[in-house]
Amino acid sequence: MTIMIEKSAEKRLHLPYLDGLRGLASLYVVLVHVEPGIGDQLPESWSLFVRAMKYGAFSVISFIVLSGYVLMLPVARSENGQLSGGFMNYIKRRSRRILPPYYMILFICVLLAAVVFIFEKFTSFQWNEIAGLGSFSPKFSFVDFLLHLLIIHNLDGSSYLTINPPMWTVASEWQIYFFFPLLFLPIWRRFGLFVVIIIAFLIGLTPVFLLSGLFESANPWFLGIFCLGMAAADIGFSRKPQLVAIRNSLPWGWLTVIFTGIAFITEWRRLGLHIWINQTFAGLAFACLFISLTKSIIEDKQPSLILRILQHPLAIALGTFSYSLYLTHGPVLVFVRYFLFYLPISPDMFAAGCYLLGTVMSLIIAYWFYLYFERPFMSSFLKKRKVKDAVIE
What we know:
- By secondary structure, the chain is an all-alpha fold.
- The protein has helices spanning about 1-10, 15-30, 45-50, 55-75, 85-120, 140-150, 165-190, 195-210, 220-235, 240-250, 250-265, 275-300, 305-310, 315-320, 320-340, 345-375, 380-385, 385-390.
- It has one domain.
- It has 18 helices and no strands.
């Protein structure tokens, strides 16, 4: 195993299953954000499906752990444990990858809000909050816009879910990008893997429990969960004897199942547990999953069912434009719902339309957005991954 790790470090590593996970997690987030009911008129036939769509936070956790994993991979595989190209080059790469699509969808949301405002001002049209229920609202303040512009809206409990609610996680992840090279890597190099995880959780939980919930809207414990992703990369590729022993001795697949079960149990609201506990167990599950799947790939084992699913061409194709899907689906779902709301259809047809038409339109708009506002800013390595190529394989 150690020899295979050393050989894999000689070339740039691409793990297709990570793209598949991004894609399926983003699609699940879309389904979570569908609002299929008209007031209290949600048909009983849809209640079970809707209950299965309440775990959107797990998808967000997968993105955070995955970010820590992907950013740590080249560091863990390097000889000196340093960021390639230094801090400024790292920030430029992250900025180019994240910010142009973010600001474009923010501009589009503001433009949509302006159109609604003009119609309300000069026509008899009035925005119906019930019809337009969902992850976009044209009603927001200048402060909301300014905080989004500065990418700090997640720090304000009254602003973080305005305009385009899913964007609050982008702000949290953007802020974590600065912790990674400026704090986490120096601690990791000096004190090791487990110390950096402990310190990250202490930093994240201190304002929540000692400062009356300060910044709780940003889920600051994501810092620790991000470090779980770092840990998965380090354990998966480290040549340090103690980490090699951990990598080769623990049953990572079974640990994934165990932590997943605990995550679902601790999510049960009647237990009264703070959500950081539930989300941390979910983060542990994803970290163990990454170690298990990557270890299986490197050792050239027969792919498990979950690996086959995540490496399916359609999942990988979806992962190619998953960031665009995450950014754009909120407004799309709301306007699809608004259109369906005034049609003379039954509650069953309304729910089906919200899910089917909303999902299809979200995918179409997201792919268009990806082609024009995300892909042009990708690195040449990422540009080589095209949706049609993944599907044709």
